[in-house]
Design brief:
Layout: H1 3-6, E1 8-9, E2 12-17, H2 22-26, H3 31-52, H4 62-69, H5 82-122, H6 124-133, H7 135-142, H8 148-163, E3 174-180, E4 186-188, E5 197-202, H9 204-215, H10 218-222, E6 227-228, H11 251-258, H12 262-274, E7 278-279, H13 291-298, H14 307-318, H15 327-337, E8 362-375, H16 376-384, H17 386-412, E9 414-418, H18 419-425, H19 436-446, E10 454-456, E11 471-479, E12 494-500, H20 516-530, E13 536-541, E14 556-559, E15 576-581, E16 585-589, E17 597-598, H21 606-611, E18 626-627, E19 629-632, E20 635-638, E21 641-645, H22 650-654, H23 657-672, E22 677-681, E23 689-692, H24 696-706, E24 711-716, E25 726-728, E26 731-733, E27 735-743, H25 751-754
Parallel strand pairs: 3-8, 10-19, 12-20, 13-14, 13-17
Antiparallel strand pairs: 1-27, 2-3, 2-27, 4-8, 5-8, 6-7, 9-15, 11-12, 11-27, 15-16, 18-21, 19-20, 21-24, 22-23, 22-24, 25-26
Helix pairs in contact: 3-5, 3-23, 6-7, 8-24, 11-12, 14-15, 23-24
Organism: Thermocatellispora tengchongensis
Region (Disordered): 52-79
Biased composition (Low complexity): 54-72
Length: 757
C-alpha cells in the first residue's frame, strides 16, 4: 500500500499569513553596530586563543598582566617572544579600534531603528492591531509613554505581527488554497492591505454573562425547553423536575406535570444549568463560530429578552471598521453590558508579548484576498513526501498510546470503572511517550560530523510500524522558496511547523469560505472513512477562549459544552466506563457495542492519551545541546535547535545599554554558533519569540524570556525573509499552508507482536 493510499490529504488548504511584512521587524536591527559587535566577539576569541598559547616566559609586571587580562595591546619592550607579542598587538589594536567605533555606530543605528519604530506606532494598521490585541499597551502609546520597557513591548508586538502566522483579525487573516496536481502552483492576491471581510466576536465570558441574564428572568426560564447533558440517564430530585427534562417540554409544562409551582421548577432548572447537568434552547452550542448570532436568531421567539444582546451585536458590527481611537470605548461598553467591572490589566494585556483571543473582550476574524494553488510538484510532495514523515510521527503516537494505556490499566487493576472514577485514579499519571524516533535520531547523530548543519533521515530509512488505530492530524507546512512557481519537487524545502492532533478544517476555519457547508460535509465523509471499524467520541467542553471546541463525526459527550449537531448520538458521563484487565484499558459505554476512542483536540492528559486515537505530536528529539536540521529528503522534520541554559544569558541581561547587549549577544552567538536570527521559546510561554541578534529591542525580550525557565530552546528561522514566496511588491510575508491528513488503521495485528518495548 503506497503512502498516497494510506494517507488522505484533504484538497482544501487553510492559508495563514502574517499581516505585516518582514521588512517592518528587520528595520529594528542595528546592522552596522551588529556587524561591529560580531567583529569584537571574533577578535576577543582570537585574542583569548592566542593568550592560551602564550609561550612560557619570565614574570610580567602588573601593568602588562592587566593588559593581557583586558585584551589590550602590550607596551614596547614588554618581555616575551617578539613574534607572539606582535601577533597579540595586531589583534588587540584592531580590537580597540572596533570597540571605539561601536558607540557611534550604535547611535546612528539607534536613530534609524527609533525612527522605524516611531513610524510603526504612527501607522493606523499597527494601532488597529494593537488596540485589538493589547488595549493596555495601546493606551500607553496614546499617552506617549516612553522608555526601554515600552520599546520592548512594542518590539514584541512587531515581531509577532511580522514573523508569525497567527489567525487573528486582519493581521492574521484566514485565506484558502487548493491542492490540484494538474494545475501549476501559484497564487492571486490583492495585497496585504486588502481585506475581504472582518467580523468581531465577543469573548466567551460575554456569552456566559448573557446566559446569566436569561437564567435571572423567571418568565424566560419558564418558557425554556431544558434537556439533560453530561449525564443522559434520568436524574431524580425532590421536586421531580430533572427526570422530566427531556428536551420536549417547557419548564412551565414540567412544573404542571410535576404538580409544583413554576417558580420552584425554574429554580431547579437554573441550578441544574449552572451545575452543568442541563442545557436549554437558548444556550448556544459551544462549537458554532458565532454564538451571539445564534442566540439572537432565537431570542424573538421568547419575547426578545436580554436587550443587552442586541446592543452588543450593534457594537460588534461597528467594531471592525471603527478607527483605533474609538475601539477602547466599544470594548469598555461591551464589558459594561457583560457586567464586568473596570479591572486592572491582566498579565497578557500589559507587560508581556502575549495576545490571544481569550484575553480581550472583543476579538476579530478576517478574510484576506489570498488564493493559493498547490499544484504540480508541490502537490505531489504534499501528498507523497510529507506522509513519510507523518508515518514516523504516527508510529511514536501509537507507541505513546500503547504505553500510556498500559500504565493506566496497571493503576486501575482488573475490573470495570466509571469514567469519572478512572479520571480520578489517573490524576497525576504521566504520559509515557514513544521514543523510537528520538532513539533513532540519537543513533544517527552519533555517526554524524560534529556541528553538521543538516542530516537526512531518509538516508537511514527504517520502515515504521503502522498505527493500529486511525490518525487524524493537521500539519502547518511552509514552502521555503522565493516563488511558488520556482518549486522543485524533492529539492525545495518543505518545512513542517506546528503539527496538530486533529483535522483542523473546522467551521471556524471555513467561516469565510463560500462552500463551507459542502467542505465540512466532505471532511466528515473523509473522517468517517478513516474511522472505519472504530467509534470515536467527541468531548464537547465549554467554550473558554476565542476559538470554539472541535466537533467531528461520532457520538458526543457534552462535558461543559453543547454539541452543534442535534443528530449526533449523545453519550452521558454516567454511561461511560473503563474496562481494564490490568494490562489493557478500553473505554466503553453501556448500551453501545464495542470500545470507544476519544477524538483528540490537544488534550494533554494521560487518561485521554490512553483512551484516544493516536495523538500525533511534534517529533520528540534527544536532549542534546545542539541538533542539526533533520530532513526526510526535502521535508524539514525539525529545524536546527539549540538548548541553552538560563545562566548563559546572565551576561546578556547584565550588559549595560544597547552597545553592551549587542556585544554580549555576539559573544553568545560565537559561543554556541548561533545564526543571526532565531526563534526562542520557553516552557513557561505559549509561543516562541523572533529574535534578531542585531536588534537591542528584541534582545530585551530575549532577556525577559530567559528569566522564565531553566533553559531556552532556540531554533533557526527557516524559511527566512529571503525564502518567503508571498510578496506584495518588494515586501515579503511569512505564510504557511495548513494541510489536513487522515490515515485509516493498519491491518489487524496483535499489539503484543507490534510493540516490543
Amino acid at each position: 500500500m503506497s503512502r498516497e493510499e494510506t494517507w488522505t490529504l484533504l484538497p482544501t488548504l487553510v492559508v495563514r499569513s502574517a499581516g505585516f511584512p518582514w521588512e517592518t521587524v528587520l528595520a529594528l536591527a542595528h546592522p552596522r553596530a551588529g556587524e561591529i559587535a560580531g567583529e569584537i566577539a571574533r577578535l576577543e576569541r582570537q585574542a583569548r586563543d592566542l593568550l592560551a598559547d602564550r609561550p612560557p616566559g619570565g614574570h610580567l609586571p602588573r601593568g602588562p598582566l592587566s593588559r593581557l587580562r583586558n585584551l589590550r595591546p602590550l607596551p614596547p619592550r614588554t618581555p616575551g617572544p617578539p613574534g607572539w607579542i606582535a601577533a597579540w598587538n595586531k589583534i588587540t589594536t584592531r580590537l580597540e579600534e572596533v570597540r571605539a567605533a561601536l558607540p557611534a555606530a550604535v547611535e546612528a543605528d539607534s536613530a534609524a531603528a527609533g525612527a522605524a519604530l516611531a513610524a510603526v506606532t504612527a501607522d493606523e494598521r499597527f494601532l488597529d492591531a494593537l488596540v485589538t490585541s493589547a488595549p493596555a499597551v495601546y493606551r500607553d502609546v496614546c499617552r506617549g509613554v516612553q522608555g526601554r520597557r515600552m520599546r520592548r513591548q512594542l518590539a514584541a508586538y512587531v515581531q509577532r505581527l511580522c514573523a508569525k502566522c497567527e489567525t487573528m483579525s486582519f493581521f492574521g487573516p484566514i485565506d484558502y488554497g487548493r491542492v490540484d496536481p494538474r494545475a501549476p502552483s501559484g497564487y492571486t492576491w490583492a495585497g496585504h492591505r486588502a481585506c475581504a471581510a472582518r467580523v468581531a466576536y465577543p469573548a466567551a465570558r460575554v456569552g456566559e454573562a448573557l446566559q446569566e441574564r436569561i437564567l435571572a428572568d423567571p418568565a424566560v426560564v419558564a418558557g425554556l425547553v431544558p434537556r439533560r447533558k453530561t449525564w443522559t440517564r434520568p436524574m431524580r430530585d425532590a421536586a421531580g423536575v430533572l427526570e422530566r427534562c427531556d428536551g420536549r417540554r417547557t419548564v412551565a409544562e414540567i412544573a404542571a406535570a410535576a404538580g409544583i409551582e413554576v417558580s420552584r421548577a425554574c429554580a431547579v432548572v437554573v441550578a441544574g444549568v449552572r451545575r452543568g447537568l442541563l442545557t436549554h434552547g437558548l444556550c448556544p452550542p459551544a462549537t458554532v463560530p458565532d454564538p451571539l448570532g445564534w442566540l439572537r436568531e432565537r431570542l424573538p421567539a421568547h419575547g426578545g429578552p436580554v436587550p443587552e444582546a442586541a446592543e452588543i451585536a450593534g457594537l460588534l458590527e461597528r467594531y471592525p471598521q471603527a478607527p483605533p481611537a474609538e475601539k477602547p470605548a466599544i470594548q469598555e461598553r461591551v464589558a459594561e453590558l457583560a457586567g464586568e467591572a473596570r479591572r486592572p490589566a491582566g498579565p497578557g494585556e500589559r507587560g508581556g508579548p502575549r495576545f490571544y483571543n481569550d484575553r480581550v473582550i472583543v476579538h476579530e476574524a478576517a478574510r484576506g484576498t489570498l488564493r493559493v494553488t498547490a499544484g504540480g510538484g508541490l502537490a505531489a510532495d504534499l501528498a507523497g513526501r510529507v506522509p513519510r514523515v507523518l508515518d514516523l510521527l504516527a508510529e511514536d503516537a501509537e507507541l505513546t498510546r500503547w504505553r500510556t494505556n498500559r500504565l493506566l490499566a496497571a493503576r486501575l487493576g482488573r475490573g470495570a470503572f466509571r469514567l469519572a472514577d478512572a479520571l480520578r485514579a489517573g490524576a497525576g499519571l504521566e504520559i509515557r511517550h514513544g521514543d523510537r524516533l528520538a532513539r533513532r535520531v540519537a543513533e544517527i547523530l552519533r555517526g554524524s560530523p560534529p556541528g553538521a548543519v543538516s542530516v537526512d533521515l531518509a538516508a537511514h530509512a527504517r520502515e515504521p510500524v503502522p498505527p493500529a488505530a486511525p490518525v487524524l492530524c493537521s500539519a502547518d507546512v511552509m514552502v521555503a522558496a522565493p516563488a511558488l512557481e520556482a518549486y522543485e519537487p524533492g529539492r525545495t524545502p518543505l518545512v513542517l511547523g506546528d503539527i496538530h492532533d486533529a483535522a483542523l478544517l473546522t467551521p471556524w476555519a471555513l467561516q469565510f469560505h463560500p462552500d463551507a457547508a459542502a467542505l465540512t460535509a466532505a471532511r466528515d465523509d473523509a473522517i468517517e472513512r478513516a474511522l472505519t471499524g472504530f467509534t470515536a467520541l467527541n468531548v464537547i467542553a465549554r467554550r473558554g477562549g476565542g476559538l470554539p471546541p472541535l466537533e467531528f463525526p461520532g457520538p458526543v459527550l457534552e462535558l461543559g459544552g453543547v454539541a452543534a449537531d442535534p443528530r449526533r448520538r449523545r453519550i452521558g458521563l454516567d454511561t461511560l466506563f473503563v474496562h481494564s484487565d490490568g494490562e489493557r484499558a478500553e473505554l466503553r459505554a453501556h448500551g453501545l457495542a464495542g470500545p470507544l476512542l476519544f477524538h483528540n483536540g490537544e488534550l494533554d492528559t494521560a487518561v485521554h492519551t490512553a483512551l484516544a486515537l493516536p495523538r500525533i505530536r511534534r517529533p520528540a528529539l534527544p536532549d542534546l545541546p545542539y541538533i542539526p536540521r533533520l530532513t526526510w529528503d526535502n521535508v524539514v522534520v525539525s529545524r536546527r535547535r539549540w538548548l541553552i541554559g538560563r545562566d548563559r544569558f546572565d551576561a546578556l541581561g547584565a550588559a549595560p545599554g544597547d552597545s553592551g547587549r549587542l556585544v554580549a549577544m555576539a559573544r553568545l552567538r560565537a559561543e554556541h554558533d548561533l545564526p543571526g536570527a532565531f526563534f526562542a521559546s520557553s516552557p513557561a510561554e505559549r509561543k516562541p519569540i523572533y529574535v534578531d541578534s542585531r536588534a537591542p529591542a528584541l534582545l530585551d525580550g530575549l532577556v525577559r524570556l530567559a528569566r522564565t525557565a531553566d533553559r531556552l530552546t532556540l531554533t533557526e528561522t527557516l524559511p527566512g525573509p529571503e525564502e518567503c514566496w508571498l510578496r506584495d511588491g518588494g515586501l515579503r510575508f511569512a505564510a504557511e499552508l495548513r494541510c489536513v491528513y487522515l490515515r485509516p488503521a493498519a491491518g489487524a495485528q496483535g499489539e503484543e507482536r507490534r510493540w516490543t518495548c
